[in-house]
Write a structure and sequence with these properties.
- This is DUF2806 domain-containing protein.
- This protein is an alpha+beta fold.
- The strands form two sheets. The protein has a five-stranded antiparallel beta sheet, covered by helices on one side. Strands 1, 2, 6 and 7 form a four-stranded antiparallel beta sheet that branches.
């Protein structure tokens, strides 16, 4: 494979295009990968023996470089060659570890883009910002564990698809997440619908853990009493309807068949008081939404689950499925209880 950087970029671009990555996302992906590792395509495509041969050549080159640098270093530090040798070796080892970490992050980003090439976001030709690339490189240099390498690889892939998602503040939050809080947040996000997480779909979270999520900047403080509201609509026959949609699907609750729930438990799938209906939820912060974009969540499935739970506590035949086509809500049938 040619060492010409242009040829390498073309190879990366072609492989990502074959996997369905949008053209503008592709361009940003190449820029991000190139920042972390100029020989990225070589790393993912070369047979193991050739990779090892290149590593051996690199090691020999580093040894030659270290001898040259050592001579200059000693001349500046005086006669203490042993001290200079140790200091230089430490420095070179640090550089090697940092590059190894960046290599691994680049590979994780490449694999993520191949596996999930399109998140349905709008096409935009906005490039990756220099601030993002600078911070990504710094964080990637210290990504010494598999979990951290996967985390920052997903960040690069997500930013390539939706530039501007990972601001400096969001990246700081990602960097400072402890393993325990990260695991808690990942489990919570699996049940999200947009930025809302229905409380009845998750196990009750202890107050201390909610405070940790809030202090980390991932959720809105739970004391604010969040919920996912329904809108109040009127059907063609004049019958009132509470309506909530996600994507092309929606559920409606016939108002003539329901009464106020008069219950305020966290496990309630829905609360109805007068002209208001809402699902009790936790709410992701703006930064939490950005972090959630690198985690897996089947929002359509979650919407189906909460709809069936609502049907459990509502009168029979009162919860209706709708499909949105050409801005019209078409009834698809009655929602069955869970």
């Amino acid at each position: 494979m040619s060492n010409d950087p242009l040829n390498r970029e073309t190879s990366i671009s072609a492989e990502l295009t074959e996997n369905g990555v949008k053209a503008t996302t592709n361009s940003r992906s190449v820029a991000g990968l190139d920042r972390l590792l100029g020989n990225f395509v070589d790393m993912v495509n070369l047979p193991m023996e050739e990779r090892n041969q290149r590593r051996r050549l690199r090691i020999e080159g580093e040894k030659m470089l270290s001898e040259v640098l050592l001579g200059e270093f000693v001349s500046r530090m005086g006669k203490d060659k042993a001290f200079a040798d140790r200091a230089l070796e430490t420095h070179l080892n640090k550089i090697a570890r940092q590059q190894e970490n960046k290599d691994a992050v680049a590979l994780e980003a490449f694999l993520e883009l191949k596996a999930n090439p399109d998140d349905g976001g709008p096409e935009t030709d906005v490039p990756l910002s220099s601030e993002f690339l600078d911070k990504l490189e710094t964080y990637s240099e210290n990504a010494s564990t598999e979990e951290l390498r996967q985390r920052w690889g997903k960040v690069l892939a997500a930013e390539a698809k939706r530039p501007g998602t990972f601001t400096g503040k969001v990246m700081r939050i990602v960097d400072e997440l402890s393993p325990d809080v990260a695991q808690l947040f990942e489990g919570l996000v699996q049940r999200r619908i947009g930025k809302f997480i229905p409380k009845c779909l998750v196990e009750e979270i202890p107050t201390m853990q909610l405070e940790e999520l809030s202090a980390s900047g991932l959720i809105v403080p739970a004391s604010l009493g969040q919920s996912l509201p329904f809108s109040e609509e009127e059907m063609q026959n004049g019958e009132g309807l509470f309506l909530r949609h996600i994507g092309i699907w929606a559920i409606g609750i016939l108002r003539t068949k329901i009464k106020d729930t008069n219950s305020f438990e966290n496990t309630d799938p829905i609360r109805i008081t007068g002209n208001n209906a809402a699902i009790p939820t936790y709410v992701l912060s703006t930064e939490g939404e950005a972090v959630a974009s690198i985690l897996i969540a089947d929002e359509a499935m979650n919407f189906s689950k909460i709809s069936r739970k609502i049907a459990e506590v509502m009168p029979p035949q009162s919860v209706i499925w709708y499909k949105i086509e050409n801005n019209e809500y078409k009834p698809m049938g009655v929602v069955s209880p869970a």
